Amino acid sequence: MIKHVTRASGTGIVAAFMSLAVTGLAACGGASEDGPSKTAKTIKMTLTEQGCSPAKLSTPSGPVTFAVANGGTGDVSEMELKNAGGIILGERENIVSGLSGTFSLSLKPGRYVMNCPNGDKEDNGVLVVTANQASTANQASTANAPSVALLHKAVVGYREYVRRETGALLRGTHAFVAALQQGNLERAEALFGPVRRHYEAIEPVAESFGDLDPAIDARINDVPSVKLWTGFHRIEQILWVKSTTHGTAPYAKKLLADVVTLNDRVQTLDYQAPQLANGAVELLNEVANSKITGEEDRYSHTDLSDFEGNLTGARVAFEHLRPALTAQGDGSLGSEIATRFAAVQQGLDVYRRNTPLGFAYYGSLTQSDRRRFAQQVDALAEPLSTVAARVAG
Hints:
By secondary structure, this protein is of the alpha+beta class. The protein folds into 2 domains: 100 residues, Immunoglobulin-like (Sandwich), CATH 2.60.40; 244 residues, A middle domain of Talin 1 (Up-down Bundle). It is 50% helix and 13% strand. It contains 13 helices and 9 strands. The strands form 2 sheets. Strands 3-9-8-5-6 form a 5-stranded mixed sheet, with no helix packed on it. A 4-stranded mixed sheet has the order 2-1-4-7. Helix 1 packs parallel to helix 12 and helix 4 runs parallel beside helix 10.
């Protein structure tokens, strides 16, 4: 089993943009940087060398905002909340020393696991959520509110989107693996970026299954040993560094099996509205905290295709939530976010090319290009990061 390693945020250009990225950009699992909703209970968590602190908590059911701060540890920079089945419901990454962040969820009564990866012990915390009669009464009185029905519709629509994307990912992976098995280097390289785009569009969903995401998509610096490295990027290194398909067979076989598992699991996965917003911000965080450096697809330089997948997935999640935002009086926020999505898409479209990838290779971007794109992503992430708390309850 691979020990959880939080994806590195990179150096160089990321450091230059850090002040931008943390202003309004939620990390994995989402956030609301301008605070929780008026009805949300706020739980303050501190990341320590031991893990999550406090390690035992109780809270009434309903909307909850987790305010996560780094207590000075260099090893622990993330908090996850899991249900009893081990599914990650929400998380906040890249909380390094001196930084803090939040994520919001609506929690039902039950026992939840708090995990702060790379602490002394995995899954070191327990959160007990008790029945909240006031919250239950309030939910009953508003059960017919338009926004409630629209949020349900958003969840159903997004679930279908995820199923379509994982289906497309599975079909593409079959074709990619077939090219590898046939020794067709040119076709395998041509398929790499377009197939991965489907994964990038729903990556927060894959990350909710713990070790499944690193098995499929880990980079070499995400694993403690190269012997444990599998997935798309393991194959990418062989294709572009060694210019051969030789040696990819075991990784191709495992990749296909893992994508089959992902496709099977999403068929029965349930969501809640804040998770859609959380995931949308997480996808933008993928761009601003790692992909902007070019380190994601460091061998193939197909990063802009990943950008497209991340941006599309984030926009789809937001578009499903937008009618509910309008119904509850947040229409101006929805319009602002939509305008900023359009600006980021326009900035990305500049790099479209008539190739199998559909985009220029990342090396063709200057640092000025990257800086401008990061600023556009940050301008979008700032208002988007407020949505999770607004739809939590």
